[in-house]
Amino acid sequence: MAFPVPSEAFAAVEICELQRRGIDLSVKTIRNIRSDYQQVADQQGVRRIPVEHANWRTLLRGFVQAAIRPSLALRLWWRLLTTLAHRPVVFLACIFWSLRCFELLAIVGREKPDVVHLYWGHVPAMLGWLVLEAYPAQKVTIGLSAYDLEMALPLSFVVAQRCAGVRSWADSNLPAIQSQKIAAGRVQMIYQGIATEIFRNLTHVATKVQRIVFAGRLIPEKGPGFAIELVRQLKARFPDIELVILGDGPLSGTLREISKQFGLESNVQFHGHVTQAEMATELAAAMLFVLPTVHSAERLPNVIKEAAAAGCCCLTTPTPGIEVLIRDGETGRILPANDLKAWVDAVTQLLEHPEQARKMAEASAQCVREHFDIRHTTDRLVSWWESIAFSTSIPEVSR
C-alpha cells in the first residue's frame, strides 16, 4: 500500500536484499507518498530502490484506463459490490483505490515484468484480479500473511486460487488459507528474514542486566503502556532498571506523560524511530526484550528475530506462529497477554538469574541464524519466483 513504512521494515530488508542480488525490481505503491518518506527511507536504507507512488493524477489516469476497459471495470466493481455490500466503508475504499489499480494495470501491460507480486493480499488483490483478467499469460503471485488474512477481502482469495502461487511467512497461517479453498501445495512458506550480519559485530557493546528494550509502533495493541507499567512494578526491587522504547506512534505523547507521572523519567527512555544499526546497538546493550502485544495480525514479528540475533532474551505473548522462534523456557518466554503478575514474576526471575536469560538468548540467536537469515530466505524467494517465471504453463482463468 505504501513504501517505506516504519512498521514494515521487514519489507525494506527483503527488497534491499533482492536489489543487492541484481534482481531488476521496482515498487509500485497504491497510496500517495508518505510525509515522512525521506526520514524513513534513510532509516531503512531504501533510497536506491525505484519506487512509484500514487498521486492526485492517479485518479484521472485510472479513470481513463477504466473507461478504456468498461466491461472489465464494471465486472470488478460489481464483484466488489456483491461481496462487500455488508462492509460499506471497505467497499467505498476499494472503489477509490481501484482507480490506482487500473493505472497500474496499464503499467504492467507496458513493462511486461516476469512476475507481478502483490505484497499484501487485500487491496492490492484488485490489481491481481485485473492483471489475470486482462493478461492471462502474466505471472502473478500474492502474499497472505497477516492483516490481509484478518481483513479477509474475498477478492484476495479469488486471486490466490487463480494466480501462480501464494507466499506466506508463518506456518500457523496455513489453516486460514486452506479454509478459503486454497490448496496447501500452492502455498510457499518463506519466512521474513533479517540481516543477521548487522548483529555479528556487536561484541563490543556491553550488556546491562537491568536493561529492557521495547521496539514497535506505539499503539495500544503493541503494549508499550503495559511495558511501562511493568517497569513501574519492578522499580521497587530493581531501582536501576531501564526501559528503552524504540519506535513512534500516536501514543508517544501519552506514554511520555505517564512515565513522568509515575516518576520514571530516569528509568524510561524514548528514542523514537532509529536506523537498523542504531536498533542493533540498543538491543545488544540490553539483557531482555519485551513485546507484550495483543495485535491480532501479529505473525512472527521481525523485531523479535532482531532482538534474539542481538543477544536478548525475548519475552512476548502467544501470537500465531511465534512458537517457531520462541519455545517457552527454552528460547525465551511466552507469557499471557495483559497478565501483569505473570510478567513481573518472569522478569524478576530473569533479572535475579541472568544466566538463565543468557542461555535462552543463545538458543534463540542460533534459531535465527539457522532459519531467519535474509540470505537464506531470499534464496528460497528467488528460487520460487524463477520457477514461476520460467514455467511455460499459463495460469488457468476461471470467471
Structural account:
The protein has 399 residues and is α/β, with parallel strands linked by helices. It has 2 domains: 153 residues, Rossmann fold (3-Layer(aba) Sandwich), CATH 3.40.50; 177 residues, Rossmann fold. Helices cover 47% and strands 14% of the residues. It has a 6-stranded parallel β-sheet with strand order 9-8-7-10-11-12, with helices on both faces. The protein has a 4-stranded parallel β-sheet with strand order 3-4-5-6, with helices on both faces. The protein has a two-stranded parallel ribbon with strand order 1-2. α10 packs across α14. The radius of gyration is 22 Å and the shape is elongated. The relative contact order is 0.11.
Which properties best describe this structure?
single chain, 399 residues, alpha/beta, Rossmann fold, 2 domains, six-stranded parallel β-sheet, four-stranded parallel β-sheet, 47% helix
